[in-house]
Amino acid sequence: MLWCSTLPGSNQCPPEKFDAIDVDTLAKETESDAVWKNPRRFWMMDRLTIALVGEPRGFQGLMFNFVAKMQMPANFTPEAGGQAALAYRPGQISRVTKYEYLSGRPVFLLRSPEGITWVMQTYTNHKASDLTEADLPELGQRLQLADGWQFTAKTLDRDLILDTNGLAHIVADDLENMYQGCTEDVTDFDPWH
Q1: Are 145 and 65 contacting, i.e. CB atoms less than 8 angstroms apart?
Q2: Which of 27, 98, 145, 178 yields a CA-CA distance of 20 to 30 A from 46?
Q3: How remote is the C-alpha of 136 from its chain's centroid?
């Protein structure tokens, strides 16, 4: 999976250059079974610290940072709905990150039937081209939530820190927005309550 990120002194990951990357050619160049370009995403946390898992590398004219390792499910194919086909099915990603959401700022939350709260880490306009950050408080009206799932927008009354030291629990909604789980190993409180 390719995530384009900014390297100091290099590029801002222009959409036209990212879109021009040929995944079949890149798969051959990297000796990968397949290459999939993760849709353009907009980070939601106020501060982000992330450890690199490899040296930056150029692919077809853009520089990339390696920040995570993830095994996509065996039945995943971009042509079969991409991440929307995995909506509301929690997964895992190996990474070392610290996401900080500051007091007084809005957060956008999912709640699973099992009572786990998921905090939006990124949104995308890949599936809903008109989606902007200003639309997120009412996002629940646009989602087709799976049975037992809920959505809410809240303003934090204290800082929320999700400190992942190796394994993050993540889930996508049906518009391919991504959320991280508020499990007891990464945070000290549940923002849903």
Answers
A1: no
A2: 145
A3: 15
| Residue 54, in any domain of the structure | yes
Instruction: Report d(CA 144, CA 142) in Å as an integer.
Output: 7
Reported pTM:
0.86
The answer to whether residue 188 is domain-embedded is no
The number of folded domains in the chain is 1
192 occurs within a structural domain:
no
74: in domain: no
Question: The tokens 């390792």 sit on which residue?
Answer: 69
- What is the C-alpha separation between 119 and 183, in angstroms, rounded? 11
Q: Are the CB atoms for 81 and 124 separated by under 8 Å?
A: no
Q: Report the C-alpha gap between 178 and 193 in whole angstroms.
A: 21
Per-residue pLDDT of the chain (193 residues; tens, 9 = 90+): 444 444 444 456 777 888 888 989 988 988 887 777 878 788 999 999 988 877 888 888 888 877 777 666 667 666 666 677 789 999 998 899 999 999 999 999 999 999 999 999 999 988 899 999 999 999 999 999 999 999 999 999 999 999 999 889 999 999 999 999 999 899 989 999 9
Q: Which of 41, 37, 45 is nearest to 18 (CA)?
A: 37
